[in-house]
């Protein structure tokens, strides 16, 4: 570990030249990456935004090195957490940013596993703002086949016969959410938007056949990481923003069955209720499924830790709770991440051989 710190501290901030940001790894940069990888593998921390990363940068457990590599619009920060070598990288908002950043991390560096964390909306009525969720499965719930008006559940979707689309996962019927009181005596509500059918992602695992697609909707986190995460459930979390603003319930860490992502900010009570009842999801947000899908295809173990900052439209009509509780949720997510890494470092025998 001392060698790692000495090596990392030997380098000053390193920014790539403009021509390198276009994708070419010049000799100096490649040599730096190669040498850094000799001191890996690293645990990759993939973080959506600065307000979620800053609490970790300021946490006493994080010891930064002077090595920072900028590449393709991303900044890779090196350091240790609880003496475990880590690389921190911010993705930016949404699925595309998260997927690109995660793939860059895994392609450039020796990564033993990925921890993705941040805040999320809460679709689960049994959970509360401030709680930190650790889902076992993740889905991308905004890959759709939008059915033409007049067709219904018994009608085959376009290209379904070719295996491009499916009706296996289910759909949302927009007519179920029509508010008009005008309807005929013989027919239910109708809506020209008709139905949207949820679709699995096409995936191409590194141990599969190139250009031969597989499909995935629910992507499991690493089973051993998830098993270890049970040790986090007794962790005490912060419940107050300040001396006058506190949560009504004591926040907790809880493992849940499912979370879902889409490049959509969800602040709608009707869709919140639908997606919970349809898929039994708890956190709803905008990046985790992309991280999950990339790690799944690259066969890199990962886990996602998301703190609940708002009720995704299920709260009061006046405002979204995220304006008040985002900072608290971000702090709680960081606290859980640091404790998770501490467990990885302190109890390596909890992992399979070769994963400590």
Number of helices: 8
What overall geometry do the principal axes of the alpha carbons give? globular
Distance between the termini: 14 Å
Radius of gyration: 22 Å
Strand content: 25-35%
* CATH homologous superfamily annotation of the domain at 28-135 and 217-346: Nucleoside phosphorylase domain
For the biggest sheet, the summary is: 5 strands, mixed, barrel
Oligomeric state of the chains present here: single chain
GO molecular function, one term: catalytic activity
Signal peptide: 1-23
Keywords: Signal
Domain Nucleoside phosphorylase: 45-136, 246-342
How are the secondary structure elements laid out?
Elements: H1 2-9, H2 27-37, E1 42-47, H3 50-57, E2 62-71, E3 74-81, E4 84-90, H4 95-108, E5 111-122, E6 132-140, E7 144-146, E8 171-173, E9 195-198, E10 201-203, E11 214-216, E12 219-220, H5 223-228, E13 253-261, H6 269-279, E14 281-285, H7 288-298, E15 302-310, H8 322-346
Parallel strand pairs: 1-4, 1-5, 5-15, 6-13, 13-14
Antiparallel strand pairs: 2-3, 3-4, 5-14, 6-12, 6-15, 7-9, 8-9, 10-11
Helix pairs in contact: 3-8, 4-7
Pfam families: PNP_UDP_1 (PF01048)
Domain Nucleoside phosphorylase: 45-136, 246-342
GO molecular function: catalytic activity
């Amino acid at each position: 570990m001392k060698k790692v710190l000495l090596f990392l501290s030997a380098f000053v901030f390193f920014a790539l030249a403009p021509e390198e940001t276009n994708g070419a790894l010049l000799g100096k940069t490649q040599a730096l990456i190669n040498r850094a990888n000799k001191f890996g593998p690293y645990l990759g921390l993939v973080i959506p935004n600065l307000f979620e990363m800053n609490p970790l940068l300021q946490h006493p457990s994080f010891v930064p090195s002077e090595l920072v590599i900028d590449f393709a619009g991303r900044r890779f920060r090196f350091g240790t957490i609880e003496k475990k070598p880590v690389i921190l990288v911010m993705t930016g908002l949404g699925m595309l940013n998260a997927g690109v950043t995660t793939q860059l991390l895994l392609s450039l560096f020796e990564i033993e596993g990925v921890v993705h964390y941040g805040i999320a909306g809460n679709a689960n009525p049994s959970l509360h703002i401030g709680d930190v969720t650790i889902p076992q499965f993740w889905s991308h719930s905004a890959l759709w086949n939008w059915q033409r008006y007049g067709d219904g559940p018994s009608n085959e979707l376009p290209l379904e016969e070719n295996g491009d689309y499916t009706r296996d996962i289910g759909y949302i019927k927009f007519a179920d959410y029509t508010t008009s009181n005008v309807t005929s005596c013989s027919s239910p509500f109708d809506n020209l938007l008709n139905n949207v059918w949820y679709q699995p992602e096409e995936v191409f695992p590194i141990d599969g056949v190139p250009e031969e697609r597989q499909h995935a909707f629910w992507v499991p986190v690493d089973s051993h990481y998830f098993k270890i995460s049970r040790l986090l459930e007794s962790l005490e979390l912060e419940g107050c923003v300040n001396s006058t603003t506190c949560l009504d319930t004591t926040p907790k860490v809880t493992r849940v069955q499912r979370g879902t992502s889409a490049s959509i900010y969800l602040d709608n009570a009707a869709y919140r209720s639908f997606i919970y009842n349809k898929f039994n999801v708890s956190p709803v947000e905008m990046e985790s499924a992309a991280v999950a899908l990339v790690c799944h295809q690259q066969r890199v173990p990962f886990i996602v830790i998301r703190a609940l900052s708002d009720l995704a439209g299920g709260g009061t009509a006046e405002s979204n709770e995220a304006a008040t509780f985002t900072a608290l949720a971000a702090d709680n997510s960081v606290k859980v991440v640091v404790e998770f890494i501490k467990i990885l470092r302190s109890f390596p025998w909890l992992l399979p051989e070769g994963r400590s």
